[in-house]
Amino acid sequence: MDFDKSRPIQARTGVPGLDDVLAGGLAAGHLFLLEGNPGTGKTTIALRFLIEGAAAGERGLYITLSETERELRNGAASHGWILDDAIEVFELVPPESLLDANQQQSLLYSSDLELGETTTSLFQAYERSRPTRVVLDSLSEIRLLAQSSLRYRRQILALKHYFARHGATVLLLDDRTTESSDKTAHSVVHGVILLEELAPNYGAERRRLRVSKYRGQAFRGGYHDFTIRTGGVAVFPRLVAAEHRVGFARDQVRSGVPELDALLGGGIERGSSTLILGPAGTGKSTFAFQFVTAACRRGEKAALFIFDEELGLLFDRAKVMGFPLEDLRDAGLLHIEQFDAAEISPGEFAQRVRALVDEAQTKTIVVDSINGYQAAMPEENSLILHVHELIQYLNRQGASTFLTVAQHGLVGDMRSPVDVTYLADTVILLRYFEALGKVRRAVSVIKKRTGRHEDTIREFNITERGLSLGDPLTEFQGILRGVPDIRRPEAETRPAVE
């Protein structure tokens, strides 16, 4: 039959995020290759592809050479899916004559017979129902039967031309278990989707995909994280900040502490990023909580993404300092989520942040801390790029972003595990210093791109009423070194008159 031109130009896969990567879906009437090692999610994506077609009124056919029909249906049921009458599962098994040793042919290679029988059975299965969507699982079996690259290529070409004449959209699965370097199918098919599974030294496996080829179609390049969970595969398209921009008023966001706002030159500009930097225990999270609480009191929505602390302890600690985070959460003003750095990928994290900003109109975002976020990275050399795109995206959405980084050391020379200071619009520096037999805390603003700020250093305390900042420190010299010198008034340093 001829290709039905009234059908959609693209066949949506139904996999969340994958159609975004493919700029709409798979081009209808073409052959596509979905390849990946066993366990990467090929069958799950293929089943979702057929179920999506059935929901659109299209018939589907799953031809399996490697799994049984029972295994496929059980796999679908594990995700809550039922393969209805619109989806046929055809279990292609070798003919009985080839399984009986007494009936083996001696004049012809058995692979010749098997390949011919397999192809004939495959076409007959298609002719019975004439489906719109077809899945062939897997090419590894076809490659083994073909025995040579030439016969394998001819077989793939025969499949391509046969299905093209009937206008079927075909997904070929390849588990890459035989001759993984063979790129024959890549040159024949219309598009190639590669699935990969990474095994970090600690934590859950990480999965990612990449579209390496798509003829005549723009697509979102690069690697995209994805997960397999109950309900199927979820793909998290790589965030490109330049694609997202909204208009907003760039006013100042105040903290609610007059001295801190004065230090910041009036406050933080909306749509900017702030890095709170300092050694462990100096109060980085407390400064972030101050801005979050102030935003909620203005009636705005805020979000806290916690990598380093258990939520129950965090709520108790914050409440003692006058930050009712739990009450704000229950009131629907604050979204707070704790992440296990070993169980989440950067792509999934970015997707969760985007959902809050796009759907819930959240305007204050806190990531506490970048140290924990770094632990979630499978490759540390990509950290700066991930953080850059996330910050730029949030800035373009008019969200105020606060990031905390714990530096190594307590006093003196401080070192950061990752340098993101150049990415932030504002940098707030916290320090311990010793004076008059006490350990004290100081805060200063060392950078602000969006306007003027004080160049002073102020002492601060954390009390049951939250943050308390004092006047600029003028009686000490060398506070940032940790052990300052006391500056005596000029009258005290003048020599006595004899």
- Taking the alpha carbons of the first and last residues, their distance comes to 117 Å
- What would the principal axes of the Cα set say about the shape? elongated
By CATH, the architecture of the largest domain is named 3-Layer(aba) Sandwich
What is the total domain count? 2
Helix content: 25-40%
Low-confidence stretches: 1-7, 103-110, 491-498
Main sheet characteristics: 9 strands, mixed
CATH class of the largest domain: Alpha Beta
Which structural traits does this protein have?
498 residues; alpha/beta; Rossmann fold; 2 domains; 9-stranded mixed beta sheet; 26% strand
Kindly describe this structure.
The protein has about 500 residues and is α/β, with parallel strands linked by helices. It has 2 domains: about 10-240, P-loop containing nucleotide triphosphate hydrolases (Rossmann fold), CATH 3.40.50.300; about 240-485, Rossmann fold (3-Layer(aba) Sandwich), CATH 3.40.50. It is about 30% helix and about 25% strand. It contains 16 helices and 24 strands. It has helices spanning about 20, 40-55, 70-80, 95-100, 110-130, 140-145, 150-165, 185-190, 260-265, 285-295, 310-320, 325-330, 345-360, 370-375, 385-395, 490-495; strands spanning about 10, 25, 30-35, 60-65, 85-90, 135, 170-175, 190-200, 205-215, 225-230, 230-235, 250-255, 270, 275-280, 300-305, 335-340, 365-370, 400-405, 425-435, 440-450, 460-465, 465-470, 475, 485. The strands form 5 sheets. A 9-stranded mixed β-sheet has the order 5-4-6-7-3-8-9-10-11, sandwiched between helices. It has a 9-stranded mixed β-sheet with strand order 16-15-17-18-14-19-20-21-22, sandwiched between helices. Helix 6 crosses helix 7. The longest helix has 20 residues, at about 110-130. The radius of gyration is 31 Å and the shape is elongated.
